[in-house]
Amino acid sequence: MLLAWAWLKWPVDPKQAGRRLQQPPGGRPSAAQSPSDAGDRAGSNHDTLRALITGFGGFVGPHLAAELRAHGDGELWGTVYQEAGPAPVAADPACRTVPVDLRDGPAVRELLLDLQPDWIFHLAAQSSVAASWQDPWPTLESNVRMQLNLLDAARALRQAGLGSASGPRIIVASTNEVYGDAPTPTDEAAPLDPRNPYAVSKVAQELLAAQCAQAWDLDLVRVRPFSHIGPGQDDRFVAAAFARQVAEIEAGLQEPVVRVGDLSARRDFSDVRDIVGGYRLAAAHGQRGRVYNLGQGKALPIAAILEHFVARASRPLRIEVDPARLRPAEVPLTLCDAGRAAAELGWLPAIPLTRTLDEILDDWRSRVAAAGRAAHPERTT
After folding, report:
1. Which domain range does residue 182 map to?
2. Which of 165, 69, 79 shows the shortest CA–CA distance to 118?
3. Which one of 61, 102, 105, 239 has the lowest number of neighbouring Cβ atoms within 10 Å?
4. In this structure, are residues 76 and 68 in contact, taking their beta carbons and an 8 Å threshold?
5. pLDDT tens, position by position, 87-96
């Protein structure tokens, strides 16, 4: 067997009874929580709801684990890709991790046959637009192959008669990048018009998921989050890139210059903790086969993020445009219409971006300080 079993209980808050992973005495999700297939799950081979997060070692995975743990009662598992290095957010002790390369089809099939999850949150991806421009093929190959392997493994699970009768509910995390330069505010009916290799890979992933779900009768919901930021994000992404430079300047590790790309673009930014709340609600309440946008519905200039950090820096600094940070085919404006998610899932973003930005800067200050202590242990007492 690939896995050593562990049963983990997420704390349940009675005040969240209408929105948590509620389970009736029989141990399966209630119809109110999973309307598409709650009745079929009586055939599952385990008594508690079991969730699997692919790409747990990335930015979003630990935040989703915390969201699920705070609103539910069940078992929590996550896949990690060992060659990717340590997760940017501290490991969650309530989530058991499984090292697996999701590009390896037999390994993914063995994982699902052993684990028999009820919910799968497919987050694993190469998600950097900049990296996708530098070398497009690995992004296209990895994102599509991982998706196909997971879908094929879910089909194998059903064919083996394991897990619930309807198979696992799969939440496919896509992106607003699939819309390109769409009319705003952008709803789910907007045409797909990807403008970078990463976005092309996500369109392919979505279409493959929809086709396989129909052909193989899989329970699948797609989510299209707009830009999301928060503590733990790496500096390939804009807010973290600014915050890291400010933190290093404050620590005297970098000359007092923040190097930037195009500051004129306006983006619909959300806190990652709001976004993962949408993922949870999509698993609990989403309609099978449906697509849900997730975003604030407000466009913020990238320059405003930089100004926020500069205003909070403890040292004076200046700004310089770095041509290496400029992207080809930049979309000037993204603005989300999340009306469907509000109406059907009850999802609304709640965390103000000023708080998010403050926590991102504090996170990078802590990381820079920790790196300094590790590099010079003789300076610590």
Report:
1. 14-230+271-294
2. 165
3. 105
4. yes
5. 444 456 779 9
